[in-house]
Each structure stands twice: as C-alpha cells, then as structure tokens.
Sequence to fold (74 residues):
Amino acid sequence: MTRGKYTRKPGNPYGRKPDAEQDAATLQAIADLLELGQNPTPQAVRNVLAQRGIEKSRPAIARRMERLKREGRL
Fold:
C-alpha cells in the first residue's frame, strides 16, 4: 500500500514515504563532509544541503539520518 505520498505500516499507522531524491542528496552531503574530514552532524549536513538549495530543518535531517542508519544505508 504505497501509492501516494503516505504509507501505512503495521506498527506505524500513518507516516510519509521516504523521498529517494532527498535521501540521495543527504547521503551525498554526508559523503562530502567525510571527504573533507568533518563530522557529519545534522547541522553540518543541513548547511551543505542549504548551499545546494535544499532547505530542511535540523530535526528533519536528524530524523532522516536516523532512518538511513536503521536501514543500514549510512
């Protein structure tokens, strides 16, 4: 059941579907920070994304990073 913007999961009745484009941008930002030898904190990732024209809040990026870690992509 993942047709629209939202998805239903057994433990989580109403949540948004992850955006693959945003995930890719976040992973790229984290990779760039690591390449520069910096710690990829949510604030640092937010600053890199803001430079690329993606405005997201720090808590939103922190949630995305947590989800990516849970999925084993980070």
The longest helix spans residues 20-35. The mean pLDDT is 87.
